[in-house]
Amino acid sequence: MFLALSSAAVGCAGGETGGNGGTPLTSAELSDAVLSGKHSGFEALPQNGPLLEDVDVVTAADPVCQPVADLRSVTPKHEATGTAWASLGAGDGAGGGSVVLTSYPEGGAKAWMSELRAAVSTCKDFVASSERGWKDRGTLKVSPTDGIGDESLGFSTVSAEDPGKGQDMTIVRTDGSLAVYLTSSEGEPIPAALMKTQHERLREARK
Questions:
Q1: What phi and psi, each to the nearest 5 degrees, are found at residue 11?
Q2: Residue-wise over 98-125: b if at least 16 C-beta within 10 A, else e?
Q3: Residues 6+ apart with CB under 8 A from 87
């Protein structure tokens, strides 16, 4: 499962706090904040199972692409202190996606966003392999994010094997937390209104 990435950075904010007065949000707090129920034409269903397994160690062939590979790796450079996620089903049955919430020590979320912007601008041929046994190759294309959250990134990946298929991703930073949205490029795009609702829920969680 691809967690997220891209490069259309919008509206970088100044300071960053993890939440709760600077302490990163816990998995329990993120679970309380993750969307559930109907939102903007999608049905959010929180998940209890682990998102990644020990064999999901992902390495990019080109080191400049590693921040992107880290989005789907169990061993990223920036290790999350808390995680929660939900599946997102489109109401009209045209595919779905997911939202993954993660929290980081002070400065961690903002640093990863900066590294992703730099990686996407220089990573022309994205090739990544996993200890699970798979290998992916494709190209990245920047997409707009409508200035959601404190900072946001948007992109799509196009498969080198099948140019007609790909994935759309958006990452939204809320203080020291990230919300990563993933959908198939063939399905319904996740509305900005849904992402803004999740952003506000994360804002409330840190109070």
A1: 55, 60
A2: bbbbbbbbeebbbebbebbbebbeebee
A3: 44, 45, 47, 96, 97, 98
d(CA 117, CA 69): 13
- Alpha carbon 145 to its chain centroid, in Å, reads 13
In angstroms, the CA 53 to CA 187 distance is 26
Q: Is the separation of the CB atoms in 33 and 86 below 8 Å?
A: no
Report pTM: 0.84
Q: Are 34 and 84 in contact (CB under 8 A)?
A: yes
pLDDT truncated to tens, each residue of the chain (207 aa)?
A: 344 332 222 233 334 554 444 789 999 999 999 999 999 999 999 998 877 877 889 999 999 999 988 988 888 999 999 999 999 998 765 567 999 999 999 999 999 999 998 888 888 888 888 888 888 888 888 888 888 999 999 988 777 777 667 788 899 999 999 999 998 877 788 999 999 999 999 999 977
